[in-house]
Amino acid sequence: MDSIFKKTLRSELDFQDVKVKELAFKTGLSKRTLEGYLGARASIPPADVAVKIAGALNVSVEYLVTGRKFFESPLSEQDQRIIEGIGMLSKGQKELLAQFITSLKEFKIQKE
Fold this sequence. Notes:
The chain contains 7 helices and no strands. It is mostly helical. It folds into 2 domains: 4-66, lambda repressor-like DNA-binding domains (434 Repressor (Amino-terminal Domain)); 77-111. The chain is elongated.
């Protein structure tokens, strides 16, 4: 049976399009160690290692371990993913996105 940690870690790596090699670099852990958390045996890391992995992926340790986010949000899952994605944009990309959102608001007002 696959561990929740393994499933959540794999899901987050896929969502963020982060390769194991990149995560190894960001955490200072070996690629082989990380593959051990994702492999057939799917061991669960000690707390200090889980903290490094969570920090590198900008998620909570609780989320990696349980697969659940520990806050209630009025936002849909799609909205939450969009907000998380914004955090990965460069300053210039954020400025373009802000301009785009302003244009969408103006377009909506004109339609009403």
